[in-house]
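Support reply, case 0932

Customer input (verbatim):
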Amino acid sequence: QPATPASDLFLAARCMVAVLGGRVAGQENGIVWGKTAVPRPITALLQSCLIPAPHRRPDSGWELFEAFHDILGQLYGQPQFRPFHMPTR
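Our regenerated output:
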């Protein structure tokens, strides 16, 4: 099968699972979390990218980004600018 945007998002989701301390297991690509407490909405979003059938996975990175941004807003509130002051010597 040719690579598609859904293929890229599949691999990105696998990387994100690993970075968050989990692993992808089984033929259904279920996520097994170690000691990490990942919120269910984020887990569900990642699982949608790991569906074995490529035609059922998200195929738009921008739409996935917007969905992830919305989830983060619901879980943690809207992003806020926080100035970071570097001390001078």
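We compared this against your earlier run and they match. Two observations from our side: The helical segments are 5-19, 40-49, 61-76. The chain is about 45% helix and 10% strand. Please reopen the case if you see a mismatch on your end.
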